[in-house]
Amino acid sequence: MGDAIRVLVADDHPIFRDGLAMLLASVDGIEVAGTAANGREAVAEAVRLLPDVVVMDVQMPELNGVEATRELATRAPDVGIVVLTMSEDDGTVFAAVRAGARGYLVKGAEQEEIVRAITTVASGGAVFGATLAARIAQFFAAGPPTPTTAFPQLTAREREILDLLAAGRSNGQIAAALYLSPKTVRNNVSTVFAKLQVADRAEAIVRAREAGLGR
Q1: Are residues 171 and 80 part of one domain?
Q2: H or E element: which one contains 56?
Q3: pLDDT classification of 144: cutoffs 50, 70, 90
Q4: Mean pLDDT on 99-122
Q5: Which range, 48-62, 105-119, 122-136, is most confident?
Q6: Is the domain of 172 the same as that of 129?
Q7: pLDDT 10s digits, 174-207
Q8: Residue 8: its H or E element
Q9: CA pair distance 159, 148, nearest whole angstrom
Q10: What does the pLDDT look like over 80-108, one tens digit per residue?
Q11: Are residues 123 and 177 in the same domain?
Q12: Quick one: average pLDDT of 27-52?
């Protein structure tokens, strides 16, 4: 099986993880290199084993799938990542894509769709499923939601948080959308206020919306 696609399955639910591993192991041309029960383990095992593809659950303890994907994009950039999750919301889709995922499937996808995603990503392609691909196309066809020249003093993450702030999201909603801890969001919001030299949330929202954010 020298030419087999080597896959690492990362999911914190043992029944789903083991079931998917068994399913993939039964497919000609795919070899299950290993499994991981949380995001931190997924990163460690992917760096150690260097599989062709990681099938990564989004909701995992210690390190969620989006953060694990972001870390792997730096530490093992040649490893393709297919994100597998229950959620179809745009925030999850774009967080995964920004983190470096090249495939995105919802749990409940047919075996053929999962295998096709793995083989496509292993060969350097990208696959997001018909419904999700259409959403991504619509998103980019609409143009960038925020002016890239606005607030150059902010980091990309801070600008992203300000954009959600301007859209009326609470700190909790921002944390959920970006897969960050509430404490990280609070710290970033405070930094944004300081950099913009605004006194409070309302003033920050006004400044952001005047610059075209929060659409």
Answers
A1: no
A2: strand 53-57
A3: low
A4: 89
A5: 48-62
A6: no
A7: 999 899 999 999 999 999 998 888 888 888 988 8
A8: strand 5-10
A9: 9
A10: 999 987 766 556 667 777 788 998 888 88
A11: no
A12: 97
Which tokens belong to 129? Answer: 């499923």
Residue 125 sits in the same domain as residue 28? yes
The CATH number assigned to the domain holding 95 equals 3.40.50.2300
151 in a structural domain: no
- pLDDT for res 148: 52
Mean local confidence (pLDDT), 26-54: 97
Can you give the CATH number for the domain in which 190 is found? Answer: 1.10.10.10
- Judge whether 16 lies within some domain: yes
Give strand pairing partners of 103: 82, 127
Identify the helix (H) or strand (E) that includes residue 53: strand 53-57
Same domain, 77 and 168: no
Q: Which residue blocks in the chain are alpha helix, DSSP H?
A: 14-25, 39-49, 65-75, 90-99, 111-122, 130-141, 156-166, 171-178, 182-196, 201-210
Structural domain total, the chain: 2
Q: Which domain holds residue 177?
A: 156-210
Do 116 and 194 lie in a common domain?
no
* Amino acid identity for residue 37 in this structure: A
The model carries a pTM of 0.65
Instruction: Record the tokens describing residue 126, joined without a space.
Output: 């990208």
124, with CB counted inside 10 A (0-12, 13-18, 19+), is exposed
Q: Which helix (H) or strand (E) holds 103?
A: strand 103-106
